Predict the structure.
Amino acid sequence: NAGVTQTPKFQVLKTGQSMTLQCAQDMNHEYMSWYRQDPGMGLRLIHYSVGAGITDQGEVPNGYNVSRSTTEDFPLRLLSAAPSQTSVYFCASSYSSPGLGIDTQYFGPGTRLTVL
Amino acid sequence: DAKTTQPNSMESNEEEPVHLPCNHSTISGTDYIHWYRQLPSQGPEYVIHGLTSNVNNRMASLAIAEDRKSSTLILHRATLRDAAVYYCICSNNDMRFGAGTRLTVKP
């Protein structure tokens, strides 16, 4: 198993540009989520999905869109990048909602995004 | 989800036990206590979780207070590889990470 994969590893954008961060998992996990981590800070939940076709907002959803058309993929879209979105983005997956205590979350290696 | 309070940083000597505390005084009856850690330049990884009883696994032990308002993650013999940020999360749904405790292990 490749686990949770994220592409690209690094990205530099100019203010106003759009892009999609890719996340894929090959563990047949229903639950997937996106976090951002600013320098020296903890992770903040952006969006999550409990299964294909179902998404919901986390703590900091503004400026980001998600969709979940397949179990494997959960892309994160930045419609109009802003310098405040400079951060490291982590994708995670688990069989069910990780807070339920049934199983654990697996995290990808992260995408480091800089918006100029 | 209950708010958690952890010390910003802790230090330990290699080969010695480490006790990482977490306060969660507003925990609800259905919230699990989860611990994750984040090694430098990596995504977080699962350490341990529990509900009411103490838990042990190959990585660590979790001691939960009887009133569940606090818990302690115990690393029995710290190694240099255990240097990381440790996050305590109380949740029964999605996971929300705080700032965590940065553990430094001295040789």
